[in-house]
């Protein structure tokens, strides 16, 4: 079953028939052909399989996870594929990443959503752990969903990532997080994440070494 679903997920990807001056990949999601411009010299500007897993879940579970008119933020949006698919499915999306990635992110989001979505998504800078209250005030920012694909990797900002999840997540916010397990750091982060959030694995793809999680705040019932 894993191999069959993985084959279907990966089958959503297609490649150009001819070489262009910009590297791009194509994907079929939410009834649209999506073209993503990439930069192969930057981790944040490449589409990773975890993003495809999350997009596939959003499309095939649109009744269970109805995004129409929902407020969604994607952290570590990278090329913007997840944000684009969420937008095409009816959500109001804020796609965020580091300042050096925003140009390519904005290009991909605009190219694939203009005049195609109920709500035009926005692109915004978010450096994990920095100026969170200033840029995303708790009093006025309420997200129904936080989405993340492959945000945990071998980097020194895992404390800031956890702080960012904590800041953006209200008691009724749902986190959808797809992750590829590569190093022990990932396992340690999951353990720390579970001190703040109830974590449920909703899909698992051993052949890709990717798991898809749903999470909510631990203290939501008390609130």
TrEMBL record:
<keyword id="KW-0808">Transferase</keyword>
<keyword id="KW-0949">S-adenosyl-L-methionine</keyword>
<dbReference type="InterPro" id="IPR019410">
    <property type="entry name" value="Methyltransf_16"/>
</dbReference>
<protein>
    <submittedName>
        <fullName>MT21E methyltransferase</fullName>
    </submittedName>
</protein>
<dbReference type="GO" id="GO:0032259">
    <property type="term" value="P:methylation"/>
</dbReference>
<keyword id="KW-0489">Methyltransferase</keyword>
<dbReference type="GO" id="GO:0008168">
    <property type="term" value="F:methyltransferase activity"/>
</dbReference>
<dbReference type="InterPro" id="IPR029063">
    <property type="entry name" value="SAM-dependent_MTases_sf"/>
</dbReference>
<dbReference type="Pfam" id="PF10294">
    <property type="entry name" value="Methyltransf_16"/>
</dbReference>
């Amino acid at each position: 079953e894993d191999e069959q679903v993985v084959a279907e997920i990966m089958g959503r990807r297609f490649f150009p028939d001819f070489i262009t001056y910009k590297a791009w990949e194509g994907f079929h999601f939410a009834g649209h052909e999506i073209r993503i411009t990439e930069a192969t010299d930057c981790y944040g500007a490449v589409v990773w399989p975890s993003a495809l897993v999350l997009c596939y879940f959003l499309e095939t579970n649109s009744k269970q996870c109805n995004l129409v008119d929902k407020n969604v933020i994607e952290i570590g949006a990278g090329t913007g594929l997840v944000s684009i698919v969420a937008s095409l499915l009816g959500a109001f999306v804020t796609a965020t990443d580091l300042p050096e990635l925003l140009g390519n992110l904005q290009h991909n989001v605009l190219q694939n959503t203009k005049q195609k979505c109920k709500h035009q998504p926005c692109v915004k800078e978010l450096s994990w752990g920095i100026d969170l209250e200033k840029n995303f005030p708790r009093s006025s920012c309420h997200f129904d969903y936080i989405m993340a694909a492959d945000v945990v990797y071998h980097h020194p900002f895992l404390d800031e990532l956890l702080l960012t999840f904590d800041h953006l997540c209200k008691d009724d916010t749902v986190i959808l997080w797809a992750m590829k397990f590569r190093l022990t750091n990932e396992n340690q982060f999951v353990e720390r994440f579970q001190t703040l959030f109830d974590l449920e694995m909703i899909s698992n793809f051993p052949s890709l070494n990717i798991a898809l999680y749903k999470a909510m705040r631990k203290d939501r019932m008390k609130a």
